[in-house]
Automatic annotation (TrEMBL):
It holds the Pfam family adh_short. GO terms for molecular function: oxidoreductase activity. The lineage of its organism: Eukaryota, Fungi, Dikarya, Ascomycota, Pezizomycotina. This is Uncharacterized protein. It comes from Polytolypa hystricis (strain UAMH7299). Keywords: NADP, Oxidoreductase.
Amino acid sequence: MVHSIKLLNAIVTGGASGLGEVISRRLGDYGANVCINGLPSDQEAGEKLCNEISEKNSVKCTFIGAVISSPEACESVVQHAVETSGGLDIIISNAGWTRHAEWSDLDAFSEADWIKSFRTNTLPVMWLFKAATPIMKKKFEETGRVGVVITTNSIAGTGPTGSPLPYSVTKAAQLRMVEGLARNNGPWARINAVCPGLIITPFSKDYGEEGMADLEEQSPLKKEASL
């Protein structure tokens, strides 16, 4: 059964470019109001994207520039979405960070890099969900509408791949977090992770030709996907 998301309210983190932009546009196409989160440096591009989505689909679309590496930043994104759209039904936790390095190079990532990886790839899922809990739970109690959280994970989270060690570890941790949240917060919330392989985006191009070739080789189809 296909459920309509028309007039529902969604957040998309990392939503101003790449896969996040495609998700934001598609949500608007299906009639949802969209709060797009991106980096503060994405402000101009994010506002332009919001204008395009709003004009095309006659929906509300707003941008908030925030680095969601703290509980406070995640709370501000949720608050902005509720204030501008009137509620919150869907969270797409899509923001992520990494850079290419060999698994064998244990000096490639500093302690600060590891912490940044966890605070970008793993912890925002918990922080966003925690901030949204009273809103989604209240709506479920009043209307029966189930809150939805979807995270953009990766095949890197399912096993050692061509992605760098910190990225793989933090995505694996995210999978366990999603499983734990899903098991303990039904029936008012539905929480799932999607694990794509290599998708050609500005984010993935940082791997370089050798890294891209390695990731393609690990794909069953021996090729990358495009947006």
